[in-house]
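Internal ticket - ligand job 226, zinc ion:
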Amino acid sequence: MKIVVVAAHPDDEVLGCGGTIARESAKHEVYIVILGEGIQARYNRPHSVSRKSQAALEAQARAAAKILGAASIRFERLPDNQFDTVPLLTIVKRLESYFQKLKPEVIYTHHPGDLNIDHVLTHRAVLTASRPIKGSSVRDVLAFEVPSSSEWAFQRLGEVFRPNIFVDISATLERKLAAMGCYAGEVRVAPHPRSPQILRAIAQRWGSVSALQAAEAFELIRSVRS
Ligand SMILES: [Zn+2]
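stdout (structure tokens):
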């Protein structure tokens, strides 16, 4: 089975479903697509992102993907926190041609209610690019939460994250945290949601909901059983 994780920024794939990627890669091929550059707005860089820092961030993403056992990681390099300056159709077309080539059965992506605009548009583009037309390979689309974006919308901006699928990551939580450790510039100190302690607490919280030691939570957006 082929699984694709479509994330807006480098580190979202780890925060959203790193434990699940590590778990699923033991049995399936997991491909990661990072749509945005992940540097520009975050570090207040001028418009032209330095090639060196972009390469460094992509190297961190590759290291994280390796820890998680992903089959590959791909970078589309859209402008960070400015996906709304790119025609939605451009993002859709890129994903569409990738999905047509790869033929994934399962897609994990952002939840549409996040605070971050790139997350919202990523969800939208994935939904369009994977729409259930004849010949489409995609069976399931699932949305993940991203700590420091999903909860920081305070249920004001759109759909609320309502998880209904819980994946046991007791055996892979440490790999998720190690993969997050590759992103030196993105890790924060507790009580920030992107700190190792709080990521562990979130996994335990979803575990408490599902009688597991540690879990990642997903909202099933669509499932087609043929
Ligand atoms: Zn993000």
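Auto-summary: The beta strands are 2-7, 29-36, 72-78, 106-110, 140-144, 165-168, 215-223. The chain has six helices and seven strands.
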